[in-house]
Design brief:
The chain is an alpha+beta fold and 344 residues long. 39% of the residues lie in helices and 33% in strands. The strands form 4 sheets. Strands 4-3-6-7 form a 4-stranded antiparallel beta sheet, with no helix packed on it.
Length: 344
């Protein structure tokens, strides 16, 4: 019986969030009963994402609500009469990238209007569009818009997409900016699928140049200039204070130097005066000595002259009274005493 029953996988067709499993089964004696398929995410082998069942008379089955761009393993088996799992085949398949996009149709200083296109093969619970203000390599979140509801999501899956959507800068979410500041404006798309799984990252992006960049840059520059002016004023105040302190220190140093110079000059003047006084005293003393000497010399000369005159007089008188008697001797003694007084 076992030899005539058989089943195996022939192929797997991958969609964005679905896998269509194609297989062959021949079971004329109902050995297999029901064919089982376990769908497992290869990144978590112990987690069976879905289990689906098919009749041996079928040739394909579709598994929906899977994640885009995800690799799954498909395990084909049946359960025998003893409740033992008997695996008959195995295959791997990867879901395709999601076909979703956005087109920007208008932009103002603080809004972006766009059309949203969603993958028609994907079942969505909601789609969230994030508005970014791009400056250099940094993306700043400045707004957000969530699209939900079956009619909106169905329209987004159509060829025309869901148009007329507008997202505005949220000042509470954008650090109070009211206009775009960066060189680019961007939109990023995240979605939540009907199975509750959320896309791990943006599945679609669109960017455009910010036509208001120059005005925004001017506003930023003005703000920076005001900040720089404030900084410069503060620095000037500090410099002025430092210059005042330097002037005070210089004045104190100058005063000290002037005091020292004055002391030195006073000392020099005193020294000069003392020297002058000494010199004058010496000169006066010298002059006095010279005059005293001269006076002494004159007195000596006068005394000498007196002596000479006395001698001559005495000689004359002696000659005249040579023949005299005792009266003549007494006269001579008197003249000699007179000459002695003139010397004193």
């Amino acid at each position: 019986m076992e030899a005539v029953s058989n089943m195996y996988l022939t192929s797997v067709t991958a969609g964005t969030t679905s896998l269509t499993i194609n297989f062959y089964a021949y079971d004329p004696y109902s050995i297999y009963g029901v064919i089982c398929f376990d769908i497992v995410d290869v990144t978590d082998p112990d987690n069976v994402v879905k289990t689906v069942y098919a009749d041996p008379s079928e040739t394909s089955i579709t598994v929906s609500d899977l994640d885009p761009d995800t690799t799954y393993s498909i395990k084909m088996y049946y359960v025998d009469d003893l409740d033992e799992v008997v695996q008959r085949d195995f295959m791997r398949a990867t879901t395709s990238d999601e076909n979703a996009s956005m087109t920007i149709t208008a932009i103002t200083e603080n809004t972006v209007t766009f059309t949203l296109y969603l993958d028609e093969d994907v079942n969505y619970k909601s789609a969230t569009v994030t508005l970014y203000d791009v400056s250099g390599s940094a993306n700043f979140v400045v707004g957000e818009l969530t699209v939900s509801g079956s009619s909106n999501l169905k329209a987004a899956k159509s060829d025309d997409g869901l148009s007329g959507l507008t997202v505005t800068i949220d000042t509470s979410n954008a650090s109070q900016i009211t206009t775009f500041q960066g060189s680019l404006v961007a939109l990023g798309l995240n979605v939540v699928y009907t199975n509750g799984t959320e896309s791990s990252s943006e599945i679609a992006w669109v960017r455009t140049a910010n036509p208001y960049e120059s005005e925004a840059s001017t506003a930023v520059t003005t703000s920076l200039v005001e900040e720089l002016i404030s900084t410069v004023n503060e620095l000037q105040a500090r410099i002025t204070a430092l210059e005042g302190n330097a002037s005070a220190d210089a004045g104190s140093t100058s005063s000290d130097d002037s005091g020292s110079s004055s002391s030195n000059e006073s000392s020099g003047s005193s020294g000069s005066s003392a020297a002058s006084t000494t010199s004058s005293g010496s000169s006066a003393a010298a002059t006095g000595s010279s005059e005293s000497s001269a006076s002494t010399g004159n007195s000596t000369e006068s005394a000498a002259e007196g002596t000479d005159s006395g001698s001559e007089s005495s000689g004359s008188e002696s000659e005249e009274s040579a023949g005299s008697s005792a009266d003549g001797d007494a006269s001579s003694e008197t003249n000699t005493s007179g000459s002695g007084k003139n010397l004193e």
